[in-house]
Specification:
The structure is a single chain. By secondary structure, the chain is of the alpha+beta class. It contains four helices and five strands. Helix 3 packs across helix 4.
């Protein structure tokens, strides 16, 4: 058990929303993998094939970040939205994952970015679907 509670709500302020389709996709993406690292990698690979960086769908929703469900439905989002979707999917498949605000990127440049932090083998590993790293 992951210790997380699945939240399905109409409250647009909750970023980690899970729909039935999103849950199904998370399960399919990881398949029968048991190892946390393999699960995290499988979700990342699913992202690379299925979610693009962009904000075309934002006009359909509120101003600000969309929820994980909205980003999943649109299959595109900006860094923080992609991070929220990754965290929601990772938590659903039993990974310990959190949203991480990033001020310096992997090239040591000042940025305003967000990614997911996944606990793997007692270490925090940053997963950034927007940066594809």
């Amino acid at each position: 058990k992951s210790g997380y509670t699945i939240v399905i709500t109409e409250d647009k302020n909750h970023p980690f929303q899970l729909s039935d389709d999103l849950q199904k996709q998370a399960r399919e993406a990881v398949g029968d993998k048991k190892d946390s690292g393999e699960k995290a990698k499988a979700l990342f690979q699913w992202f690379q094939k299925n979610v693009t960086y962009g904000k075309l769908g934002r006009h359909k929703y509120k101003v600000g970040y969309r929820t994980s469900k909205e980003v999943f439905d649109d299959r595109e989002g900006v860094c923080g939205e992609m991070a929220s979707l990754y965290v929601a999917m990772a938590r659903y498949v039993g990974l310990t994952a959190n949203y991480v605000s990033v001020k310096k990127d992997n090239r040591d440049e000042d940025v305003v970015n967000a990614c997911a932090g996944v606990k793997l083998r007692n270490k925090l590993v940053l997963v950034d679907p927007a940066y594809k790293t």
